[in-house]
Amino acid sequence: MSAPAKPRRFHSVNFILWMSFLIFAAFILLLTWVFQTTLLRVFMQQETERDLRDMGEEVLSFVHWNLPLREGMPAVEMYVENFGEENSAADIFFLNGAGEIMYPSAAREGEGEEGEAGEGYPDGEVFAAVSAQLRGGEAMIKTGDSSFAFAARIENGAVSEAGVSDLFVYVRYSTQMTQAVMGTMRVQLILISLIVVVLALAVSAWLSMVLTKPITRITKAARRMAAGDFSVNFKGEYSYAEMDALAETLDYAKEEIGRSDRLQKEVLANVTHDLKTPLTMIKAYASMIREISGDDPEKRARHTQVIIDESDRLTALVNDILDISKIRSGMSELNVKNFNLSEYVHTVLERFAYLTEAQGYTIARDIEDDLFTDADEEKIGQVVYNLVGNAVNYTGENKKISVALHRTGDGLLRFSVTDTGKGIPPDEVGTIWERYYRSDETHKRPVRGTGLGLSIVKVILDRHGFGYGVDSEVGKGSTFYVLFPEK
After folding, report:
1. pLDDT tens string 382-421
2. Which terminus of the chain has fewer CB atoms gathered within 10 Å of its CB, N or C?
């Protein structure tokens, strides 16, 4: 027991485009948010630490040239003041071993007081934290949510009233401005996200409308064509090349399907007519035998012969239809082998000997000897017979036919059959292979065809992949030719 088929789910192009744009916009926004909240923050912190370390190294370089530090040194006071003016986000503090601020003097004078003068200065708690992390050398310290500090300890680098002590260099760097900028960027990113989402929805809706409009138009035209209306036109003014190419392809398919539909109707009409005529004749002559000529041997024989001839015609017509059906459906496999095409053409032409002996036809042969090819011998025999029979039926009053077989010089053998009939009008040259074609000759010919001979030739040669064609001029006759590969 086979598993139940899964239901097929279809989504419109509008929905797919809308979701695609929305997912793409969401992906871009997600990347932007990740960059804003994580990568940018990490990058800014690394930049801050690098800048702060550079500042600290510069300050240490200055300090080493002025050791030991005492209170009231003008050069140090000026350096600290200039540093603060040049770096608005950074401050320098020099502390002695007891945690007392030596520089800047303003901080020392305001130490312990409340108000703006002491705001942000390193107090005892900060000094304890710094001294705990410094065991000689340098350290980067995060002193709050919005500040970093570079700290260094220089042994015996400070001199005060209490004596000689270690010098602590403390460079504080505020990141409040950076955080304010990032906060502004975050607000802007929220607004941009909303705008992007709205634009993604609007653009996807507009683009889906532009893309689906020609698809809808072509779909409606295709449905009309499927219903049998071959007057539809798929071409139009499309905004992209793929739809234009699709329209051209569908127009070509429409023409081919329409031609095939006309061919089927014409074949059905002609075959029905050809079946009806012999059946009517058979019935009529059978009735005549029963009612009129049953006791007259001469009339009975003549009427019986008509029935036999019409039965043969029916058999030929049915066989031709079956041959076309088998070859086109692939039921009739090709039995390809190497054979002497020259000798085989002579053999097929012998079947028309009765025409030259009894009807006065002339079949001129210009056949080069010992030309070999690879093909299905039996089916190539049908091709040769049908082409020669077609020439016999439609040649001129001189009853002359020419059959030729020669090398072309490029590895091919050209077989041709030429008649001297009325020729084929230019507007019919391209269709004689495709349809139930029979010229409207008023005089009777000795080889009565079913009208399917050229169709059989076309199907057989297409299966072999051989080239073929016809050269014709109205009033001067036609030349049908086939190109065989020489082997």
Report:
1. 889 889 888 888 888 888 999 999 998 888 999 999 998 8
2. N
Q: Give the position of tokens 């004596």.
A: 163
Instruction: Say if residues 81 and 72 touch (Cβ distance below 8 Å).
Output: no
C-alpha to C-alpha distance for 376 and 396, rounded to whole angstroms = 32
DSSP output for 79-98: HHHHHHHH-TTEEEEEE-TT
Asked whether 440 and 448 are in contact (CB, 8 A), the reply is no
Bridge-based pairing state of the strands 400-407 and 163-174: unpaired
Whether residues 257 and 356 share a domain: the answer is: no
How buried is residue 340: exposed, middle or buried, by Cβ count under 10 Å (0-12/13-18/19+)? middle
* Residue 405 and residue 413 in contact, taking contact as beta carbons nearer than 8 Å: yes
3-state secondary structure of 182: helix
What is the pTM assigned to this prediction?
0.45
The separation between CA 179 and the C-alpha centre of its own chain, rounded to angstroms, equals 49
- Domain range for 347 is 333-485
How is residue 234 annotated by DSSP? Answer: -
Q: What is the chain's Cα-based Rg?
A: 51
Same domain for 311 and 376, yes or no, is no
Report yes or no on 372 lying in a domain.
yes
